[in-house]
Amino acid sequence: MREIAAILVSAILVDNFVLSRFLGICPFLGVSKKFENAVGMGVAVTFVMVCSSLMTHPIYNLLLAPFGLGYLRTISFIIVIALFVQLVEMALKKKIPSLYKGLGVYLPLMATNCAVLGVTILNIDAGYSLLKSAIHALGGGLGFTLALIIFSCVRSRIEEAVVPPMFKGVPATLIAASIVSVSFMGFAGLFS
Amino acid sequence: MLLVAYIVPASIFLGLGLFAGGLLTFASKFFEVKTDPRIDSIIGVLPQINCGVCGYAGCADYAGAIVKDGSPANLCKPGGTDCMEEISALMGIPVQKVESQVAVVHCNGDENAMSSKYIFHGKQTCVAADRFYEGSKACNYGCLGFGDCAAVCSYGAVIIRDGLARIDKSKCVGCGICVKACPKNLIAMRDLYHHIDVCCSSIEPGRVVRSICKSGCISCKICVKKCKTGAMYFSDNLAKIDYSKCDACGDCADACPTKAIRKCDIIYNATIAPPPAIKH
Q1: B131 CB within 8 Å of a chain A CB
Q2: CATH number of the domain at B37-91, please?
Q3: Is the CB of B18 inside 8 Å of chain A's CB atoms?
Q4: Per residue in A76-108, pLDDT tens?
């Protein structure tokens, strides 16, 4: 139980996928303009992460590893991730069209999102069990959502701030992202 | 060996693919969104350059708005009259008029008219040059001439000659994509039949403009005195035209001492000779 809690908290805070591991920067910068879209994207990524972790774990351990086909894991994991991304896309298009519009191209791009692929591969590399994989994926997704929400709030402030013309737009956003990421360094060593 | 190296991976991926495909087919039935077939046919009629002149996010968005919200069919400027007639026929609504628009570069300062502050060796785009002390031209409101507008124009209607962007009005369809590309906001759209343009954007006082540019607006206000219809007015040291009053007589253009105001009823933005072969 203690171990599971440690995995969850460390995935959310200490090893935050966006701010510590620098995975999934593309949606982090692309969808963090509006708070609502940030939450929607976070939930979608969390769902895809947990589902694909639950599926990739047996695929690797029951199908690929026994035959020594570990080298095929990236491509097979991408298939599974793309499957869930498609499912999420269809569901959103039907149920929440406004969010579907707001996320735009970043929704199908989730299929090649390194944060999602990263969580499934990290599960395998860490040798987690199925339950621990799911918890790790849940933590990763929540951490991603947290980073997106924090950054969407930071960004709404940048929009109003007086930025020197040279740093307007992307440079200011990247500098802000680095400062937010520095603040997450404070969590390093929480479990040592 | 053969079994493990080839057949097993192939069958694993076959199984995975079939499973994913089956699940998605099932899901697509379950989550099916019914769309009006007219939307697809209108998308087919629209020019698909997604310029956003209609006020919607793109051609597909506009097609949806026509069918669902009853938006007028004459908003697509690049498509013009042909496009509007086809949409009207598809929707069964009466034909409306399309106001054709054209882009105008509000700067007259080519290399001959204006000196440079420095020679720009960085990335040869207007956006990059603009970040460096507002560009290399002596005037901070002048066309930088690196052709960001020409690069985005799908119709080859923007020509860079002597370091100044010029619009070939015979090719311009009025999509307004170049307007967004200009970091100096020098390009604006106007109705095709309004032939008079103020080709200067400097809000500096007249003496400052005179010292750096031979063909800028020097706030002499002769055009205001010459204008018979009261369409000419001044704001921010710059001549402006109220197109609702202008009858395009061209008196202001004839009187303008620096030729910053021009009557451009001929094709090229520059009233001088047509451009030579474009340099690459």
Answers
A1: yes
A2: 1.10.15.40
A3: no
A4: 999 999 999 988 888 888 888 888 888 878 888
